[in-house]
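Hi F.,

I've been meaning to write this up properly since the lab meeting, where we talked about keeping a consistent format for the predictions we share between groups. The idea is simple: the sequence comes first, exactly as it goes in, then the structure tokens exactly as they come out, then a line or two of notes. No screenshots and no reformatting. I'm using this chain as the first example so we have something concrete to point to.
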Amino acid sequence: MVIQFHGDVEAGKLVEALKYFTGEIYQRPPLRSSVKRVLRTRRIHEIELLDFKDRFALVKASCDPGTYMRKLAHDIGLYTGVGAHMRELRRTRTGPYREDETLVKLQDVSEALYLWRVEKDERMLRRIILPVETAVAHLPKIVINDLAVDAIAHGASLAAPGVVRLTENVSAGSTVAIFTLKGELVALAKALKNAREIASMEKGIVARTKRVLMPTGVYPRFWKTGGKG
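Output, unedited:
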């Protein structure tokens, strides 16, 4: 991110500001945003000053999803007392995807789409469009049996009998990815127990579903509603 200051700033003051905004911070989304403007917390895991010349600072930051970098630049400007705004932003990593490994240009997408539509060649398109499962490669995982899939797809919480296996890094409170036996992503959930506790459970809820990603009806329905009839 390139921050442009509205006045002269001493390097020491800028370094002090970056340290101040490292860790958990409060943010209210800017006026021009797509979310409700309520005060919320986000974490700046790391922020580093790469270059500083005249009134421009090149900053590298690692932060929580949903952090508004232009708001961060604005707040840094307030801290220094001269005001500032974000001049440029370059995203080099998001989740498991990295700029030098998996990210592609829009031109590449356009070319791949052309080859598929005109020449019926889908090889480049397959290299560019990755399966949704790759987006959760960095998350702890729980594999469930076929009997539980459609219930989870309807938003139900995951009960212990539905668990087939899970990774050792599942911890209470962590976000986990729920998969079918075939390796298909079903949903994201919040684990209520750690891996060892879940493995020893015979009944009870082990994870609360947060976001469903698989459509209903893909797997047969084996669950019953609570209605009478």
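Notes:
The chain has a mean pLDDT of 92.
The two ends are 60 Å apart (CA to CA).

If this format works for you, I'll send the rest the same way.

G.
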